[in-house]
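Protein modeling request. Please complete all fields; requests missing the sequence field cannot be processed.
Requester role: graduate student
Desired output: 3D structure, token encoding
Chains: 1
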Amino acid sequence: MDVSLIMSNILNPPVLFFFLGMTAVFVKSDLEIPPPIPKLFSLYLLFAIGFKGGVELAKSGLNQEVFLTMLVAIVMACLVPIYTFFILKIKLDAYNAAAIAATYGSISAVTFITASSFLQQLGIDFDGYMVAALALMESPAIIVGLILVNLFTQDQNEREFSWPEVLQEAFLNGSVFLLVGSLIIGFLTGEHGWKVLSPFTQDMFYGVLTFFLLDMGLVAAKRIKDLEKTGPFLISFAILIPIVNAGIGLLIGKFIGMPPGNALLFSVLCASASYIAVPAAMRLTVPEANPSLYISTALAVTFPFNIIFGIPLYLYGIDLLWR
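Delivered output (323 residues):
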């Protein structure tokens, strides 16, 4: 693999600010970001990428290529938690295995945005409707994870889930609702809507992303201590399973004829893990699972791995497969 790809990704300002946040924790700086600001910025990022995706979807139209991409996105969101569950069951109980499997079946919007920035930096085109794939892959893993808990825990006959609450958390949690709503509004307003909002949705985007990644660096570094509880099995899992998932995503992308830019974004969606929506749902519905396991592996291992090494690695795979 070309080392310059990794360096190009690392020297991206948002990624460098991620490192700055981690460094602040390691050197015990008193740098802190007030809690409402990262929340506001995460909402802004979801709104901006959803709106842009809707506008791009309006341009491309709902054709066969779009429907096929949406279909494979849903299939992977359901498939990944199933096979990762059985891998995790080798060392963990069903509660923790299902919670971690659901985490890795869902996606990280920030990793997706970082990959989009990487593609733009390299001048590689991609279609805006990939944001719709992101939105579709956020929730199914939560449902699959809960079904696995029901099927494989000893108290399955006594356990009672509040399915309305579960479904509400899966499909109507704030992140999913804002992302899908912005996508629909972008689709309905099209180019006119884009011109009206572009100073807010385009010019400010990378500044907000950079500041948000600074906060993510702070949070990830604070979570590293939790890795002492996970042991080498989960740390290895958190590095290897994204590569496996990305590889499957690339093969699917190649098979259905995705262009390279779309294939990279799809592989990144397959390789990333949720550290917001799924943990929130698991805390609510599977309290037996240990949050320090599924949050720390996703946030302190898989997220940094993907934005530093994973994205260039997956692009290298595309270079090999798409020649």
